[in-house]
Amino acid sequence: MGYECPMRRIAFMNQKGGVGKTTTVANLGAAFAERGFKVLVVDNDPQANLTTHLDPSIEEPTPTIYDVLTGQVTASEAIYETSQPGLSLLPSGIDLSGAEIELVQEMGRETLLKRAIDEHVLRLPDEDRYDFILIDCPPSLGLLSLNALTTVTEVMIPIQTQYFAMRGMSKLLEVVELVKKRLNPMLRLSAIIPSIADLRTKLTAEVLSEIRSYFKDKVCRTMIRVNVRLAEAPSHGKSILEYDKSSNGAKDYRRLARELLGALTEDDLEDIEWFELRLCGEPIEFDDLPAAVPEVAPVAPIPLPDEPRPPDNVVGGAD
Which end of the chain is more exposed for a tag (fewer CB within 10 A), N or C? Predict the structure, then answer.
């Protein structure tokens, strides 16, 4: 999963809420920045949890991604630096909740975010250009998520290791393939991130085995373990690396960053093997898992420019 690229653009998606998308964007972005990379995190969710995570003092930031999408300001005017060096934020706000309705008649509505980000990046001098752009998506497959998919080249899916983990995954994968075919040929699913993993339960082992049997080596070996410090960090407006750098949450996100960079150490591999031994009784081998059985479910594709548009195509829930 790790590879070198001048700039990696990654959307974190899952239409199921509460799986750790925002937590992963905030803390993975911080882990990349800690390693010296320049990172832009984009809050593309009307709930604005990423914005409050990184700076809870901003109750109603102005301008926001809403102002960018509606053409009132450029991305350059809306992006600001966080307290962590190397980590920048394009914030969100409650106004974004109405964007999908307001923009329904907008020409090129599927690529508004891409055009804004591209324009901003092109204005930056080479030494200031980002190494990573990480987009936190809403728990829906509407216009906001579609904008994220046309902006990035990679999709990563955080999956909570609980009973409903795989629910609706076939629809999400169908949408990714549709966008790849019709709008963004560079798009690909690059990683599945097991999150909120409780190593004490048999259920976690069973769900993780199911996820790995379906997605094979797309599944990160790094698991984000249940950790109360991760839950506390947002209320202090800090990433877990700033809030408690020695916590399991900080260790997990640093390890995840190294894995996605293809830079796991011997210590990382020993830790991962120990986790797997504790969880399942023996190390997990991808080749020993049964063949994946695709989930079959009818999928209503997102309307694209040359298709008839129904009156309301927003599907979602609370993150």
Answer: N
